## 1
Amino acid sequence: MDPFRRPVIASHGESHSLGGVMIGSIAGRSWPAAFPAAVLLALASCSASPPPAKEIESYDQAVSRWMEQTEASLVNSWGIPQKSHSMETGGRVIEYIRVKSGKTLCTTRFTIDGYGLVKKTWFRGSDCQVPSNS
């Protein structure tokens, strides 16, 4: 038997039923049809876990992920905004401003609709960073 031969489940029309679960033959042994998926899942769990999202996403992605989320969740994560503007439509705009040594480094705005959901995002600056408390 060739050790590099790719195993095939129920090859050449060979299949069996065991309690309604289809099984096939690999290397002369019968295995449940879900066996290859279980092996792949086990191997995947051995790999290193990815770094936290904050480390791998851009600021644009970090801001955009708040779309359709609640204002309460945003404020809970980012803290109390530095400014808030009510709109005639019933919504409002909340603004986070990052300042260092008297200079504005980044301004980020979230437009909140009348139901309290983030509908638009906008930012401008040279050193935009997700707040450390989020």
## 2
Amino acid sequence: MSGLTIWTYDWVPDMPRGFVRDLRLRWACEEAGLPYEVRTVPLADKGPDHFAHQPFGQIPFLRDGEVELFESGAGLLHLGRKSQALMPRDPAGEAATLQWVVAALNSVEMVTVPWWFLGLSDRAPNGLDGWLKGRLDHMEGVLNAREWLAADRFTVADLLMADVLRIPQVRAFGDRPATEAYVARVTGRPAFRKAHADQMAHFAAGDAVRAET
């Protein structure tokens, strides 16, 4: 099999739509002008074939010819190596992009996700508020000093960091104008808008299928 295939769920409830992580890979492909197709696995009744591709039964996973990867970060780095639109080829620019991709996952999303889950319990105060505030304040300092995270231009690091930071509850947690401007700038790109609209349409089509069964 040749070409890029992004795997996502056949359907999800309303709340996560627009934030399901196959969007990261769709967005990267749109930025780079890489053709791709989207295929699905069922949200319910996950079977052996799903776990064979993603050992935790999650999405997305990516196929590029004979190459298969799971985890959105791994997929983004793979796509970055396919296109200079996503990752510079000079050693300094590539290294800076790599470090900020890792930072988005390990230093920021590692805090935002558990903080968000704790917030669902409606128990106040959230015991992770201080941890999250520290990470977001540090990012505000970084973004006060630069427009882009690496190489003085948009890279896959910005795609990932903005996707982590655009969660509505995270954006509403304190007043950080540089971060808000950054998220608005990155998610205002045409490639994001198309990837987002395509994901929303995909899950809306899933509603129609479920209504017929």
## 3
Amino acid sequence: MQGKMPWAEIRPRPTAGRAHTEVANLDDQPTERGQRLSRAAAQRLSLYLRCVAGWPADEEKVSSGRIAEAVGVSDAQVRRDLAALGHLGQRGVGYDARELAIAIRTALGINRPWRAVLVGVGNLGRALLRYQGFRAQGFEIVGLFDSDPAKVGQAVEGLTVESIVGLAERVAALGAELGVLTVPGETAHAVAEALVAAGIRGILNFAPVVLKLPRRVRLVTVDLAIQLEQLAFQVQHGDSATRPTDDD
């Protein structure tokens, strides 16, 4: 996004009829057996799901050992994580692959479609729009917004870029619950506040800033520079770098 955002023109508007139920916090996510699902466990479940979904469809049974080997955790950790989802596997037999995938998707909250809007139709935003994995996992980008008048009205990946000024009304009309933030750091706070005021319940933030949002709104930040810093640290220190334990 280029140019100064016309935030003075944006006014929070009522979002009557929109659900404002708080998104479940992954640190306090109930499972079928009443246990709590931590963020670390949720991240591992996503990896387990990738493995199971990527294996041949005719394989009806999968073992905890095979999942553990593919993901790089212990067999015991896999069994503990999956035990929190209910009575899925049989000792000596393994897990029914289809049943396991359904249970993991339910635990992660992706057993239904999620509609999202993307704010910031620059290079990163356009690259994300071309990524087919979102739709495959049930995430649909339904609206694009930018403050640059030169971009408003452009067609990008089948969607028309809209002015940020109409964000509140359009979020409600589109039924979006999630927001993807791909704006410069200096404007990220203002955009995030506008998304929250519009009724967005969770934000995926790619801006290199730390956002402070109301507790009812969930936030995941992807700072690519930090990820490279962590990679550099691991390469620099090699085996001396502390590896996370299974339960981290």
## 4
Amino acid sequence: MAILDRVLRRAPRPDAPAEDQRMSVIEHLEALRRMLIIILIAWGITTVAGFVVSGQVVEWLVSRAGLGHAVYLGPGSFVLTRLQVAIYIGLIVAAPVVIQQIWWFVSPGLHRNERRLTLPLIVATIFLFGLGVAAALYALPLYIRVLNSFAPANVTYLADVAQLVGFILLMVIGFGVVFELPVVIVVLGLLGIISSRWLYKNRVWWFLGLGIAANFLTPGVDPLTPLLMFVPLYIFFEVSALILKLSGR
């Protein structure tokens, strides 16, 4: 909302004619419409392409989860599962276009020196989202193994492909969003909502919070697995705080 407020406040001078001010609002709406159209087109194209390979993707996800096979419980349920997978594939593959368009829309609300960071932030957002997706797929077998370990010996997990794929896709998107922590911190710093001094002052709480998040994201009985998640998250925090400090925030 803070970025949107700054974008909308990029209006003509108070003494500009009323027609110019209305034109400025129309330009903002046109920019928003253009952004949404491009995002929907990109998402639509990648979703159609994703549906073509969705069957192979489901097969790979079941194998990656460490399961020999999965079942579907209705005649048309697997088609719906393939459609769900295609939508998520479309979102993930179109993510670079979506992220670029969102940053293109909000960049007019930034100051000139802040706009120079737009391209690095776009690249960082795409890279970190992809890194989060990769981390989720890497941790997937561990998740399934830990969750199944709570079942007694005489209870067997029969994987419903729709529920399994839904769980995996939400997990993948969740990891991608969590790994955007550095971008969120830097943007909040650029907007003046937080500062490097505040981050360093509350470093202990960030340390504890990130540790709890790492344990939640990577369940396991050993301390090493959550540590593998905690270390990059904490490095993200320290790098983000350093960037804000070097930029005078």
